Amino acid sequence: MSTRIPSTDPILDNIQANILKGHGRDFAHHLFFQFKTNTSAKAKDWIGSFAWTTAKKQLLGTELFKAGKITDGGPVFTLSLSSTGYDKLGLASSKPFGGSFANGMKASAGLLGDDISIWDEGFKDSVDMMILVADDDSKKVKALADDIVAQVTVFARLLVNQRGNVLKMKGGSGIEHFGYADGISQPLFLEEDVANQPSTVEWNDETDTARLLVADFESDPNCFGSFLVFRKLEQNVKAFKDAEGDNPPIPTVLPVVQDVDGKPNSELAGAMLVGRFENGTPTVKSSIELNPNPFSVTNDFDYRDDLPALKCPFHSHIRLMNPRNGDTDAGDVSEQRITRRGMPYDDVKRIPEDRITTISDDLLDGSQPEKGVGLLFMCYQNNIELQFEIIQGFWANLGQIKTHIIGAEDSLIGQGANPPKTLPKQWGQPAQSSSFSFHGFVKNRGGEYFFTPSICFLRKLRTDQNLAQ
User: Fold this and answer.
1) pLDDT confidence of 466, banded at 50, 70, 90?
2) Contact 394, 385 (CB under 8 A)
3) Which of 43, 154, 194, 360 is most buried, judging by how many CB atoms fall within 10 Å of its CB?
4) What confidence tens digit (pLDDT) does each residue in 254-280 have?
5) Rounded CA separation 425/212 (Å)
């Protein structure tokens, strides 16, 4: 298996969709099930016979859509199993190795800073299986999800049906509920995606598949799966915007940071905590929001010109999550990189469905929920303990990247004590502001660790079941 996967590679027929490349659909239902007792035979037969979407089929649909040969890439279906799911199906001996996966997310609550008492009821239970159903038509995807629930009910009980949908500004850029650009930088594994990067002078998103894939079928070297982390992260939009100073007369808790010319910029402090302005302009490149914001600025950057972190603080969200070789004290942290595949959720209908791809600032400002909206965080990786748990448990929650204690924690997703922090008084200058507190706007409402098996493994379930009959 090569680092760059060509479109002709046979592994594409054996890897489920959404792993090597995001599914790209506007809507998705994430169905969480618990297996019923004494139904493993029925479950394995159904799982092994269902037409799960392969990476090859997903990429072919994308290619035909871009060529104008089809108007819809069609639905995407994927299946993932938790450790208890493997056990209940009688597949404990086939379970991929991983201590955190084997124990489940609840066992890592202390490390992750999770309060399980506030989780949604369905996630408090034992989740055995997750099925993702995605499509560009909200009515179609709901009907498909409902049909799967009806089929599965003979061997499993539905715990949670969590809907998600994209959020895009009028210009087409994806955002999250706080209004900041999201999903800009992602690991790239496919030969075509690596080659099509617009600019790679300072940063290249090409990533070794060893960070993502796990061999899953001993008799076939082309079969791979990946560990999946799912977390429902609720965002308190009003509290966040109040603290940013976006809701006068409520005063901001943030200092006013001066731009490169010494002019006060009311947006700069919030941008430095995120690492980007709302439109995606990285603060390491500019002290003002750039319009237009070219890709050579948006993603082709690292921190070699900001080693003391005076333009983009060490504790900024994007610098903590992906240090980009800009933390010389920590050294090489590329092995921790995860592959994000999440999407926003909106349980309270903050954004009308017909506006989710044409969102305006006025629409965001007009509705600021305190609950019921957030991010369905999903990430794939080769090793949960060495990737996600280090990023969340140490980098975000403790502000510690290897031996480098950066002196502050992630203001967005940090779930540690999150003591007060400072920002430069002026962009690029060493003098620091007074300390301030800015945290507690995101809470985990539930989740689980899964493994998304290879297509080979899933098909074999039916074969084995038929042989047993």
Assistant:
1) low
2) no
3) 43
4) 999 999 999 999 999 999 999 999 999
5) 40
Residue 457, by phi and psi: left (phi above 0), alpha (psi -120 to 50) or beta? alpha
pLDDT in tens, 179-188: 999 999 999 9
- What average pLDDT score do residues 338-342 get? 98
Q: What is the 3-state secondary structure (H, E, C) of the chain?
A: CCCCECCCCHHHHCCECCCCCCCCCCEEEEEEEEECCCCHHHHHHHHHHCCCCEHHHHHHHHHHHHCCCCCCCCCEEEEEECHHHHHHCCCHHHCCCCHHHHHCHHHHHHHHCCCHHHCCHHHHCCCCEEEEEEECCHHHHHHHHHHHHHHHCCCEEEEEEEEEECCEECCCCEECCCCCECCCCCCECEHHHHHCCCCCCCCCCECCHHHCCEECCCCCCCCEEEEEEEEEEEECHHHHHHHHCCCCCCCCCCCCEECCCCCEECCHHHHHHHCECCCCCECCCCCCCCCCCCHHHHCCCCCCCCCCCCCCCCCCHHHHHCCCCCCCCCCCCHHHCCEECCEEEECCCCCCHHHCCCECHHHHHCCCCCCCEEEEEEEEECCCCCCHHHHHHHHHHHCEECCEECCCCCCCCCCCCCCCECCECECCCCCECCCECCCCCEEEEEEEEEEECCHHHHHHHHHHHHHHC
This prediction's pTM:
0.97
Contact 303, 312 (CB under 8 A): yes
Tokens for 264, please give them.
């006060």
The residue type found at 403 is T
Q: The tokens of 258 are what?
A: 């001066």
